[in-house]
Amino acid sequence: MTCSEEAKAQFAEIELLLSMFPSEEELQVDELSHAELRAYVEGTAHNPPSIRPQFSIKLKIENPAVSITLLCTCPTDYPKVLPDIAVRCSVLTRSQQMMLHSNLNTYLSENCIGDVCILSAVQWINDHAQAYITKSVPVSDPKKEEVLMQSKEIFTRLWIYSHHIYNKIKRKNILEWAKELNLSGFSMPGKPGIVCVEGLQSACNEFWARVKVLTWKRIMIRHREDVPLDNWTEERTDSLRKFTGFHEAIFDTHGTRGNHMDLGQLYQFLSDKGCSNIFQMYFGIEGR
What we know:
- By secondary structure, this protein is α+β, with helices and mostly antiparallel strands.
- It has two domains: 5-135, Roll (Ubiquitin Conjugating Enzyme), CATH 3.10.110; 144-283, Alpha-Beta Plaits (2-Layer Sandwich), CATH 3.30.70.100.
- 43% of the residues lie in helices and 22% in strands.
- The strands form three sheets. The chain has a five-stranded mixed sheet with strand order 8-5-7-6-9, sandwiched between helices. It has a four-stranded antiparallel sheet with strand order 1-2-3-4.
- The radius of gyration is 21 Å and the shape is globular.
- Residues 12-132 form the RWD domain.
- It comes from Sinocyclocheilus grahami (Dianchi golden-line fish).
């Protein structure tokens, strides 16, 4: 099978991005999908890539100084169709991010169909993001906010199941987003992939909103725990946490690809945290 023009265009664009953003802090390309795309374009592989090219670009916006991350996934037919681009910025509300994303897509639809457009998206963000960021810092009354927070906060723990978690960019995003949102818990990569986050409900919901839009074979919330906080304090939140900080949990691996974690060790880990009942929810069997 000859290489498609779309694959050649995708590969050439990624190579250009790598030359323009040499630092891993600026550009992170999924190594497996990039290697498969390279082999297909160079003719050493006869089948199209099994994984869509994925990468993230971190942009630094000035006045005010904030970071915006573009999470990009290229469909097989790109650039005949638009790439999937998710925009993430910690100072923007979810609705503001959605508006920014919608306006970016409108611009790309009107100007870039048929051409590679990641650099056009980067330039548009650099030119227009400041307006959205400025709107995201309203003048407020701290005392009113404190009263509102105390009356409405809920402590939440999400147990997330994924068919697998291999991708290095996704694993890095999970770690960074949990820490950014002050969530504790853990992420277990491999097959299956398991993520637990706990903290204020608004932060857990934001974490799930970010994670679920990434490209997954299958991902879902397996179990959710909510505890109303009548008189919210940070100490009260911390007292409900079962985990200290957020980290990636790695256990002994097995299987032909070395991608299955030792479930016995996972069960012991959950038991030590007082969560042994979760094991049966995930796997339908009692741990031992």
